[in-house]
Design goal:
The chain is α+β, with helices and mostly antiparallel strands. It has a single domain, classed as Alpha-Beta Complex (Aspartate Aminotransferase, domain 1). The protein has a five-stranded antiparallel sheet with strand order 1-2-3-4-5. The longest helix has 24 residues. It starts with a helix and ends with a helix.
Length: 128
């Protein structure tokens, strides 16, 4: 299976609200930018990438967690980040049953992560 098919299967295997939530945020993430690719990493985690990792999505026992690889460096004017503040690099959004997520704000955060990755990529190229 390719990564997108594995993610389809992962979501399908979660029969409760977490599967539906992960499917909805996946759709919003993919709609944020046309060049986003899906990968399957770290022994079973859906990862969305463009110019590097953007966000990892996992269904946990009581929540869906979206972990932004460079979240600490991203603007979050809508206050979506609600977890991971102790880390120096990543930030996360924990979504619990009954929560709603502002898809437009999520897409803005995804686009900010893409821009951050592009900037990081340019800096690495100038150091060579």
């Amino acid at each position: 299976m390719n990564p997108s098919e594995r993610i389809d299967q992962y979501i399908e295997d979660i029969p409760d609200w977490r599967g539906a939530t992960l499917a909805n945020v996946r759709k919003a993430i993919l709609e944020a930018a046309p060049e986003i690719t899906e990968e399957w990493k770290w022994m079973g985690s859906p990862v969305w990438c463009q110019n590097g990792n953007i966000v990892v999505g996992n269904a946990h026992k009581e929540k869906v967690k979206l972990t932004f690889a460079q979240g600490a460096s991203l603007p979050d004017p809508d206050g979506l980040f609600n977890a991971g503040f102790n880390g120096n690099v990543w930030r996360a959004i924990d979504i619990f049953e009954g929560d709603t997520i502002d898809e437009s704000a999520l897409q803005s955060l995804v686009r900010a992560a893409i821009e951050y990755n592009k900037t990081k990529e340019k800096k690495a190229a100038t150091k060579r």
